[in-house]
Structure formats: structure tokens, C-alpha cells
Specification:
Elements: H1 2-12, H2 23-37, H3 44-54, H4 60-69, H5 77-94
Length: 155
């Protein structure tokens, strides 16, 4: 009876528009694992099929590409999720959101394309002007023009 309830819960699951592609499969896999713990066989292909059928329309392009380029009976759960997550990340980058779990892209000048909210990396710190060189890009003790500076390789 418990297995039937879990199977029904699995079949009724739908991905909400506001959810990310990471959250939805986690819910489905949680239910699938409970079914497996109760001794019933549950194929990963069933989870793949469920995900491909119930995701929102914004993933339609990725699903069509998967259908045209790969045999859907042989596609793994990981492969399907990677394709959908890649599309989601591209969409979020275009909308200027910081993508969790993704590496920010770099432009040719070395700057970050994704806005600089990503953990403060890439921002120059403002130090007081250096007494030795006048620059504000480093603390006093790291200045190479200070009188007691020595090369760590030579000395």
C-alpha cells in the first residue's frame, strides 16, 4: 500500500515555474529511492521520462535537441539533467543573475561578465596610498619599492 501511495505521489509531481532544475529532480529521486527501499524495482529511465515530460515550456528547446540527437531510451538521468541545467544557467546569465554552482564567464580583458556579486572576487580593495610608490592597489608591507624589500628567490 505504501508503494502505491509513493508511485501515485511520483506520478502527480510537476515542476513549478518558480523552481530550478536542481530542486525538481531531487524531489523525484527522493520518492524513487523510497520506492526502491520498499523492495520495488524502479528504473532511472522512468525518472528521465517523467522529467522530460513535466518540465515547463522554457526547457522545450533542450528537450527537442535531446530527442533529435540522442536515443531517449539510452539517455541517462545525469545527461538529461546536465542539458537542462546548462540551458537554465545560460538563461539566468542573460538575465544578469548570479548562477549558483556555475563558474562565471570571463571576457577577453579578464573581467567577469557576471555581475560582481559573486563573493567579492575581482574587486580591487582600496588601500591607503603607499608611502613608497603612491599606489592604492596594495598594503604598505607588500610594496616592492620599500627599502627593506628583498627577493625571496635571490636571498
Amino acid at each position: 500500500m505504501q508503494v502505491l501511495n509513493l508511485m501515485r505521489e511520483f506520478e502527480l509531481q510537476r515542476m513549478k515555474e518558480s523552481k530550478t532544475i536542481k530542486e525538481y529532480p531531487d524531489r523525484l529521486l527522493g520518492i524513487a529511492n523510497k520506492v526502491r527501499l520498499l523492495g520495488t524495482k524502479f528504473a532511472d529511465s522512468r525518472s528521465v521520462e517523467k522529467i522530460l515530460v513535466t518540465v515547463p515550456e522554457r526547457y522545450e528547446a533542450s528537450i527537442t535537441t535531446l530527442e533529435n540527437t540522442k536515443d531517449l531510451s539510452k539517455i541517462t538521468l545525469v545527461g538529461a539533467l546536465h542539458a537542462l541545467q546548462a540551458q537554465e544557467q545560460r538563461r539566468l546569465v542573460r538575465q544578469d543573475y548570479v548562477v549558483d554552482g556555475a563558474l562565471p564567464a570571463k571576457d577577453h580583458e579578464g573581467g567577469s561578465i557576471v555581475n560582481d556579486q559573486s563573493k567579492g572576487k575581482g574587486k580591487k580593495k582600496n588601500y591607503p596610498p603607499c608611502h613608497h610608490c603612491g599606489k592604492m592597489s596594495h598594503p604598505l608591507f607588500k610594496c616592492w619599492r620599500r627599502p627593506d624589500a628583498k627577493c625571496s628567490k635571490c636571498n
